[in-house]
Q: What sequence folds into this?
């Protein structure tokens, strides 16, 4: 396999990372995951913009132009012959002897790889279960940082309880999943947490909001509560790798059984029909 390190593509076995990378010691960096559909990157500009914003919010200077970002993704997917899959792109603040205070003249370290990955049709059809638990992350979840320990622990807690994903809530307010955004459909209205500091503004979330508009489904970027979720509602989760997946069961802080519903199915169909 070929991977990207700094400014070139090399064999994975030749990719050696600097010992004092701040990403390794502090999780001091940002990343993106970009879907490849039939050899074509999906929503490239949106990913680029989010990366630029994430970097800027933690004062990492963007050393990669949009063209360079795009070239890296194209070269990786070409060389590795990715048809359907994704590219992972990471940028850390740089290399210096471990200290909390960062120097302002560091060169960010770029690493990226491509992976073939099928669309999870089974999950999309049958749905997944969630484990509801308190969201203990920091208050800047809008930044796509590589510091993901709370997300990692949440996902693993969910798996330990036989669920595929976590449903995170702050008090009673549902924020998002460990690596997904969460939507509730109640009385024909779609609700999802607003894109503030409590969630990552998912690219798939943004696509779903567009699709809802195009199809005239009422959608409110308004937080909803654990108490709002009832058996008659629909829920679904979204992410770059999952697309749109229905939720069929929630356990943990609450216990609810749900069915994949008509709005979810229509949004899934609209997502498939969208040009990729
Ligand atoms: N929320 C979190 C915390 C995530 O890590 C992710 C993706 O990894 C998402 C939401 C979904 O974002 P996207 O649709 O851009 O993949």
A:
């Amino acid at each position: 396999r070929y991977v990207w390190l700094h400014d070139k593509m090399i064999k994975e076995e030749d990719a050696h990372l600097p010992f004092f990378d701040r990403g390794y010691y502090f999780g001091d960096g940002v990343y993106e995951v970009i879907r490849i559909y039939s050899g074509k990157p999906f929503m490239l500009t949106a990913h680029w913009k989010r990366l630029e914003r994430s970097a800027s919010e933690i004062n990492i200077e963007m050393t990669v132009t949009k063209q360079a970002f795009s070239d890296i993704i194209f070269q990786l997917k070409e060389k590795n012959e990715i048809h359907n899959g994704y590219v992972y792109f990471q940028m850390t603040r740089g290399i210096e002897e471990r200290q909390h205070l960062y120097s302002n003249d560091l060169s960010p370290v770029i690493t990226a790889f491509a992976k073939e990955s099928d669309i999870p049709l089974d999950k999309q059809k049958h749905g997944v279960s969630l484990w509801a638990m308190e969201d203990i992350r920091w208050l800047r979840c809008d930044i796509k940082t590589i510091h993901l320990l709370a997300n990692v622990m949440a996902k693993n807690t969910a798996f330990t309880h036989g669920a595929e994903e976590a449903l995170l809530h702050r008090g009673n307010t549902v924020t998002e999943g460990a690596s997904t955004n969460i939507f509730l459909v109640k009385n024909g209205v779609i609700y999802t947490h607003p894109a503030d500091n409590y969630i990552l503004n998912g690219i798939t979330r943004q696509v779903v909001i567009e699709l809802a508009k195009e199809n005239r489904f009422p959608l409110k970027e308004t937080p909803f509560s654990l108490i709002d979720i009832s058996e008659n509602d629909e829920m679904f989760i979204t992410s770059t790798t999952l697309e749109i997946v229905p939720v069929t069961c929630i356990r943990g802080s609450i216990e609810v059984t749900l069915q994949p519903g008509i709005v979810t199915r229509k949004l899934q169909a609209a997502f498939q029909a969208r040009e990729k």
In short: The radius of gyration is 19 Å. The chain has two domains: 2-116, 121-273.
